[in-house]
Amino acid sequence: MTSSPTDDALVLYGQTFASRLLLGTARYPSPSVLEAAVQRARPAMLTASLRRQGSSGADAGNSFWELLRRLDVPILPNTAGCHSVQEAVTTSHMAREVFNTPWIKLELIGDDYTLQPDTLNLVQAAAQLIKDGFKVLPYCTEDLVLCQRLVDVGCQAVMPWAAPIGTGRGPMNPYALQLLRERLDVPLLVDAGLGLPSHACQVMEWGYDGVLLNTAVALAQDPVTMAGAFADAVQAGRAARRAGTMAAQDAAQASTPVLGTPFWHHAHA
Ligand SMILES: CC(=O)[C@@H](O)[C@H](O)COP(=O)(O)O
C-alpha cells in the first residue's frame, strides 16, 4: 500500500499541513541561503522571534519580514528569550498583531545556560494564552506529567526537546520520549537539539508527528542540502512508522530462503 503525503497530513488545532518539518529562521549565513533552504525543505511552518530578529537594525528587520512574506510559509512566532509568564504573554499578544496569526511557539526559558524551559511556570503561561485564543505549541522537556498538564489546560500539541537548543546532540532521553508517545494522544513534535537527519528519522519512527529544528540546518556547511536531508529523513521516519517495524529478535534467523520455502507464510502456515 502506498500513500501520498496528503493522505497522511499533520493536523494541528484542526489545521492541515503538508509537511511534518518546522524550520527556524535564525543563524543562517545569509538571507539568500535561508530562502534557498526553505525552498528546498518546504516546511509546514517557519519560526520567527520578534525579539531576536527585530533587534539587528530597522533595515535588517524590514528585509527579514519581506523575505518571510515572499517565502509564503505560515509563520510560527516564537517567544524566544522570555523569562516570565507575563513577558511571554505580552510578547505573544504583540506577535499576534505583527504577524496576524493566532499561532505561538511558547518558549519560557528557566535557565540561561542550558536554555531549559521553565517547567514550573510553563503550564500557567500556556493556560493564559489558550484562554486568550492562541494556538499554543509549547516547547517543554520530555517530562510526562508536565506534558499531561499542558494538554489538560488545552494545548492540542506538545513539543518536548530532544536536547538543549543548539547542541545538536539528538535525543538525550529516548526512554522518556518513547514513553511520552505511548501515553499521550495529542500530536507530539520534537523541538530542539536535533543535529542529524537520523535523529529526526528516529523520533518519527517512534511515532512523533513532526520535528522543529534550526541550528542543524543553519550551521551545516551546506544548509540547503541539509534542509533537504532533514525533509527526506522526516518523511522516511514517518513512512517507517506507518509501515510497522519488525520486532527486534535476540537470536539470528536466516533471512535467505531455503529451497521450496520462499515466503514465510507458506513455510509456516
Ligand atoms: C527556532 C526555534 O524555535 C528554536 O528555539 C528551536 O528550539 C530549535 O532548536 P535547534 O536550534 O536546537 O534545532
UniProtKB/TrEMBL annotation:
Q: Which family does the entry's similarity section mention? A: Belongs to the ThiG family.
Q: Any idea what this protein is called?
A: Thiazole synthase
**A GO cellular-component term linked to this record:** cytoplasm
Q: According to its UniProt record, in which pathway does this protein act?
A: Cofactor biosynthesis; thiamine diphosphate biosynthesis
The EC number of this protein is: 2.8.1.10
- Top-level EC class, please? transferase
The job of this chain, per UniProt, is described as: Catalyzes the rearrangement of 1-deoxy-D-xylulose 5-phosphate (DXP) to produce the thiazole phosphate moiety of thiamine. Sulfur is provided by the thiocarboxylate moiety of the carrier protein ThiS. In vitro, sulfur can be provided by H(2)S.
Q: Subunit arrangement?
A: Homotetramer. Forms heterodimers with either ThiH or ThiS.
Entry's Gene Ontology molecular function annotations: thiazole synthase activity
- Tell me, which GO biological process terms does this entry list? thiamine diphosphate biosynthetic process
Q: Cite the SUPFAM superfamilies for this sequence.
A: ThiG-like
Q: HAMAP family, from UniProt?
A: ThiG
List where in the cell it is found: Cytoplasm
What superkingdom heads the lineage? Bacteria
Q: Which gene encodes it?
A: thiG
Reactions accelerated catalytically:
[ThiS sulfur-carrier protein]-C-terminal-Gly-aminoethanethioate + 2-iminoacetate + 1-deoxy-D-xylulose 5-phosphate = [ThiS sulfur-carrier protein]-C-terminal Gly-Gly + 2-[(2R,5Z)-2-carboxy-4-methylthiazol-5(2H)-ylidene]ethyl phosphate + 2 H2O + H(+)
